[in-house]
Write a structure and sequence with these properties.
The chain is α+β, with helices and mostly antiparallel strands and 390 residues long. 27% of the residues lie in helices and 27% in strands. The protein has a 6-stranded antiparallel sheet, with no helix packed on it. Helix 1 crosses helix 2 (43-67), helix 3 (76-83) packs parallel to helix 4 (188-198) and helix 5 (206-215) runs antiparallel to helix 6 (252-262). The chain starts with 5 loop residues before the first strand and ends with a strand.
């Protein structure tokens, strides 16, 4: 095997299909002479390309075997095995939960499992977690859980208003707050980040320690920690000698406990959500943290294609952009060139395109979108617009 390929001093270099074709063509000429016909239309060329395709699959397997030993390169099940040395396990899907206000006739009974849904998407359904009865004031609060796991169930406030299973005596319903705690299966990117955060679990670095502790909470999807070790308030409003955790997902009590356990004594945990945590002696400690603000991002693509463009090309491009956003964490900027790369790799048949991005519909700029430490960029397929014929 050539020293150019396989395990080298720079890592593993895979032979591509084209590399294999060229290698076999050279080998054929060394055996049969320089005049042998190895063109793609010849019998020799057919056999060369047939073998090259099979060999390229073997090289792909070899590359995956090599990568599986390294957290930074492994994917899917191989990554699960690679992170297990720190007892880190991939977080699975989780159902979202929310409180529902029910208005109706006093004494009306509501059974566990009663189903309601959102006004915008009938596929997002919730069910009651326990039996309840409308009180004398004509209303009651009941806890809901999504019927299907995933972030899709984290719906905004006042959107669960449709009664799937009508009950006599119930007039109206709504969720006064947004649903939370729903999450998709942890992605490879998220799992890698949590693994490296876990390396800082016992670190003397307060940022690494808090990040690791909070990331380990099953319901937490993302966390970003800041430290102000100066003697004055900083630009984020953090008082001197304080830490500030911005956390997406998770229960307030669990997050506060994790921050308290990981932070050093004498350091204040700053944030607009304040939770009481008691130490072993019964002393109460005020632990603060905050939630990130969602920043909606929009994308317009003026696209020129040829006959190789697939029927589902628009969907593939949209999926590539949404997946890129899903991989971002709190405070990650939106980089125009990176999205351009995702579009180029989404499908065949793309001749040229212009990409415009922004935080409002119908964007007209190609500038990167800056995301602050207190924000997280989001999008969905409805915010990606693809125009053809340019």
């Amino acid at each position: 095997m050539s020293d150019e390929f396989g395990v080298t001093e720079k890592g593993f270099k895979k032979k591509t299909y084209q590399d294999i074709v060229e290698s076999l063509e050279e080998k054929a000429k060394s055996y049969f002479g320089e005049d042998v016909n190895v063109s793609s239309s010849s019998v020799n060329g057919w056999f060369i390309r047939l073998f090259a395709f099979s060999l390229s699959l073997i090289w792909s397997v070899a590359e995956k075997v090599y990568n599986s030993a390294y957290v930074i390169l492994a994917e899917d099940q191989s990554l699960d095995y690679a992170v297990s040395n720190l007892n880190v396990k991939r977080k699975g899907k989780r159902k979202s939960e929310v409180s529902l206000t029910v208005i109706g006739t006093p004494g009306t009974e509501i059974d566990k499992g009663w189903t309601v849904e959102t006004e915008t998407d009938s596929s997002i359904k919730f069910e009651t977690k326990y039996n309840t009865t409308i009180q004398s004031n004509g209303e009651t609060e009941v806890q809901l859980i999504a019927k299907e796991a995933g972030e899709k169930g984290n719906v905004p406030a006042n959107t669960i208003t449709v009664i799937t299973q009508p009950i006599s005596g119930i007039d109206s319903i709504t969720n006064p707050v947004a649903a939370d705690f729903g999450r998709d299966r942890e992605t490879n990117h998220e799992l890698r980040n949590r693994y490296f955060n876990q390396l800082g679990q016992n670190s003397s670095d307060v940022i690494a320690a808090i990040t690791a502790a909070v990331s380990n909470i099953n319901e937490v999807r993302q966390v970003k920690v800041f430290e102000n070790d100066t003697e004055q308030t900083n630009s984020l409003g953090m008082p001197m000698k304080s830490v500030f955790a911005v956390v997406l997902g998770g229960y307030e009590e669990d997050i506060a406990q994790a921050i308290y356990t990981a932070k050093a004594g004498g350091i204040r945990a700053y944030g607009d959500i304040i939770t009481d945590v008691y130490d072993e002696g019964g002393t109460v400690h005020k632990i603060g943290f905050s939630r990130p603000t969602d920043v909606d991002t929009y994308y317009t693509i003026d696209l020129t294609t040829n006959d190789d463009y697939p029927v589902d090309g628009d969907d593939l491009i949209t999926e590539a952009i949404v997946y890129y956003l899903d991989e971002l964490i709190i405070a990650d900027d939106i980089i125009h060139s990176k999205i351009t790369q995702k579009i180029h790799g989404a499908c065949s048949g793309i001749v040229d395109f212009e990409l415009y991005i922004g935080t409002a519909a119908s964007p007209t700029t190609k500038d990167n979108i800056e995301i602050s430490g207190l924000e997280v960029a989001i999008t969905d397929p409805t915010k990606v617009v693809i125009n053809h014929g340019f």
